[in-house]
Amino acid sequence: METNNFILLVLGMGLVSFIPRWVPLFFLSKRQLPSLLIEWLELIPVAILSALLVPALVTTGTPRVFNPFSIEMMVAVPTFIFAWYTKSLGGTLVVGMLLYWGAGMIM
Q1: Tens digit of each residue's pLDDT (9 = 90 or more) over 17-64
Q2: What does the pLDDT look like over 1-10, one tens digit per residue?
Q3: Helix-helix angle 89-106:71-86, to 10 degrees
């Protein structure tokens, strides 16, 4: 691929990624949103994270088979509890990694 085409491709991808984020911020930043909408928007990250994590935690293999007692699930429960009480992203990451490493050494 030529350098010019590559630069245009990267700039185009950046623009396509930037515009959908910028437009709502630009038009809604000076307006007061209804409290119901704000509460609903606050739930979106939790819903997305749940949709990504739950299938990986409770299913294994190909085809996917329900397995609620996988190593990942056994590590996730205490990690979630730690995250809930401490609200520390760095601490949760370290605890989760240590638990996963320890579970791998045991099993």
Answers
A1: 999 999 988 988 888 989 999 999 999 998 998 999 888 888 888 888
A2: 688 899 999 9
A3: 150
- Tell me whether residue 9 is in a domain: no
Report if residue 11 sits inside a domain: no
Overall number of domains in the chain = 1
Ordered DSSP codes for 55-107: HHHHEETTTTEE-TT-HHHHHHHHHHHHHHHH--HHHHHHHHHHHHHHHHHH-
* 52 assigned to some structural domain: yes
Give the Å distances, CA to CA, from 74 to 1, 24, 71, 85, 97: 47, 40, 5, 18, 13
Tell whether 90 is covered by a domain.
yes
Angle between helices 44-58 and 35-42 (to 10 degrees): 20
Instruction: Determine the structural domain holding residue 52 and report its residue range.
Output: 46-106
